[in-house]
Design goal:
Elements lengths: L9 E8 L1 H4 L7 H14 L5 E7 L9 H11 L3 E6 L2 H4 L3 H14 L3 E4 L4 E2 L6 H30 L12 E4 L2 E7 L4 H12 L4 H10 L5 H9 L16 H8 L8 E3 L2 E2 L9 E2 L6 E3 L9 H10 L28 E4 L10 E4 H6 L8 E3 H21 L1 H20 L1
């Protein structure tokens, strides 16, 4: 029964389709869902209908754009009814879907209807409602398991398992599994490597690319395809970040190698990628046409072997990897050179260096000031040890045990 007050509220018609759902056929297409929901709404007197459509999003993804948009409208009291084709359209995470149906929607007086499942919150839920949510979750988990097995087999055969094509390459139309150099972007990659080999730092390389008005990878991909996977900054199309350049300079794909399983996710519900252990990473050499020679690639890697490598004067930064920015948590890096007097050497926030002022500020600390602070701490610690060696020994043992437990965990 629809009351007069409900007439002013939105009837949310939510549609969702994932790549896995496409295999089920036309019945789950977005167009089919829209027609079914609109027909149901018209026949049952629901007015003020509004579509919320997530095309190409998995049901376990809680960050679907229109899904998030709909929930915000619910929380703002704008929605009176949510109608979906079936419960799995709302989501395949049974914990999330159960929470919406049993807690969130009732809290905001939202009526929930799943047409083909025969679910209507106005009539109350039965025990099968929760069981269906569980089976929808199980389906997603089972599908993910099968897809992982397929990707694992492909990766072990030496086929690329990455879904996105790296900047500088394009698909070979005669053989979609094979990558070939992009005639426009490949020379840019080659230039970046050559500049780095000439001892140009990443900031100078970014400045060179901006001055020559070379579009960033995200913007370059956006123009022909309209995709925003790489988060293009359309207001600053020639702005390259140092992290983008640095990632390109360490990617073995540019010397013709395929690297599989460099990252992994713990669960089909967790999208965060975690770096894999070296023994689990598979490398296949000379699988496609390289953009840069192996010799040039190796030269660049030596240039970036690590911040702990000696500089041209043979000095090594003793604090490398140990000091971090208190504001953004990024590492601090030592700045020194022929034009800088030794007493003016300083450490600067790596977050600012990499991402600019939008991420952090250009603050730092002079190297000699840091030295004096560390020396004072060392003197205080050694004085304490001399005064109470037994207590110091016990504290050191406790700290060592804590570190050991952390490593074991």
């Amino acid at each position: 029964m629809i009351t007069k007050s409900d007439q002013n509220l939105i009837t949310a018609l939510y549609c969702r389709l994932s790549q896995e759902d496409m295999r089920e056929g036309e019945s789950l297409s977005i167009e089919n869902q829209k027609l079914m929901l609109k027909d149901f709404a018209d026949k049952n007197g629901f007015r003020n209908c509004k579509y919320y459509i997530d095309d190409g999003f998995s049901g376990v993804n809680k960050n679907r754009p229109e899904y998030v948009h709909m929930l915000k409208d619910v929380e703002n009291g704008l929605v009176g009814t949510v109608i979906v084709k079936d419960q799995s359209r709302l989501g395949r995470d049974h914990l999330e879907t159960d929470k919406l149906m049993e807690i969130v929607f009732p809290a905001y007086d939202v009526r929930f209807i799943a047409v083909t499942d025969g679910v209507d919150s106005a009539n109350g839920f039965n025990e099968m409602t929760g069981i269906k949510n569980y089976f929808n979750d199980f389906y997603a988990r089972d599908t993910s398991k099968k897809i992982r097995a397929v990707f694992k087999a492909k990766g072990e055969r030496g086929e690329r398992v990455g879904t996105s094509i790296p900047y500088g390459y394009m698909k070979n139309f005669d053989n979609p599994k094979q990558l070939i150099p992009d005639p426009v972007a490949a020379p840019v990659v080659r230039t970046i490597y050559e500049l780095c080999a000439d001892v140009k730092e990443t900031r100078a390389i970014c400045r060179y690319l901006e001055e020559h008005e070379i579009e960033s990878p995200g913007v370059y991909e956006f123009h022909p395809k309209g995709t925003k996977n790489k988060h293009p900054d359309l207001e600053h199309p020639y702005l390259w970040t140092q992290s983008t350049v640095r990632d390109m300079l360490s990617n073995r794909i540019y010397c013709g190698d395929t690297v599989n399983f460099s990252t992994y996710s713990k669960s089909n519900k967790l999208k965060k990628r975690i770096k894999n252990d070296p023994e689990n990473i598979l490398v296949f050499e000379n699988t496609h046409e390289p953009i840069v020679s192996r010799e040039l690639f190796e030269r660049v890697q030596k240039h970036y072997e690590g911040r702990k490598r000696p500089d041209r004067q043979g000095d090594t930064d003793k604090y490398a990897g140990y000091i971090y920015c208190a504001d953004c948590g990024a590492k601090l890096y030592l700045h020194r050179g022929k034009s800088i007097k030794p007493e003016n050497n300083y450490y600067q926030c790596g977050g600012y260096q990499t991402k600019g002022g939008r991420y952090c500020t250009a603050h730092g600390i002079k190297a000699n000031v840091l030295d004096s602070l560390v020396l004072k701490q060392l003197r205080d610690i050694t004085a304490y040890v001399r005064n109470d060696p037994q207590q110091s020994y016990e504290m050191a043992m406790q700290d060592g045990e804590k570190e050991a437990q952390k490593l074991r965990k």
